[in-house]
Amino acid sequence: MADLPRGVLYPEQHAPIVTVATYPASTDLAACVEYYWHVRWEVDEPYETKVLSHPNIHLVFEEPVPLVYGVDRSVFTRRLTGTGHVLGVRFLPGGFHPLWPGPAADLTDRRVPASDLLGPAVDELNARVLAAPEDTSVVEEFLRPRLAAPLPPGAADAAEIVRRITADPALVRVDRLAADLGVSMRTLQRLFADHVGVSPKWVLRRARLHEAAARAHAGAPVDWAALASDLGYSDQAHLTRDFTAAVGVPPGRYARA
């Protein structure tokens, strides 16, 4: 099975019909753009791909028009039919601000026509991008002048805090995180509303669920009680409840599937 991005659910079903490639951003855009991703699929029957979303805003070039996707707090689901492909830009937390100055929370759980936020030029670019998705220079020519403005205060801090959380799924308490950063919980919550779009608690919890899903994908038997303890849950029941609420099935059943 080919490696798939963290968060893709049911990878054994996903890998034979969907290919994913990622491309780095140029150095001068790396403060805003984490990377570009290209997804291509070919299915005989309609298939629903499901992803435990990350705390990032995406600009996606697709048919019929490009869309901006805010952070999806549920499981991101897309129905695939026939053959097709899309190219996405994954922005760092806070990195979308030069393109649209509103709070990231205003985009959460939304899919917005990109032209509503970025103007009609992004629609005109769509066909060119989809004709040669491996050539990300086309997208970067569009983004470069629009991302030239300095990031607003707090944007880079938000990106670093999210990186810290996702790198350490054992970091489980917002009050501990705020204390480590030397800020109040209210300050941290405002920072995340402005630049991330979801709360620090959501990011902490999602990092733990990503780790639980990754353990299930590994193929080896999982000691769910021990994993719950490693991830800071008070007991296995709390991990099971969180996982079931997000994914729709308990972790043990998901691993068997």
UniProtKB/TrEMBL annotation:
Domain (HTH araC/xylS-type): residue spans on this chain: 156-257
Single annotated GO MF: DNA-binding transcription factor activity
A Pfam family that the UniProt record links to this protein: DUF6597
Presence of keyword Transport: no
Family annotation (InterPro entries): AraC_XylS_family_regulators, DUF6597, HTH_AraC
Gene3D superfamilies per the UniProt record, alphabetical: Homeodomain-like
UniProt KW keywords: DNA-binding, Transcription, Transcription regulation
Taxonomy, superkingdom: Bacteria
Span of the signal peptide: none
Keyword DNA-binding applies: yes
Protein name as it appears in the record: Helix-turn-helix domain-containing protein
Record organism: Actinomadura rayongensis
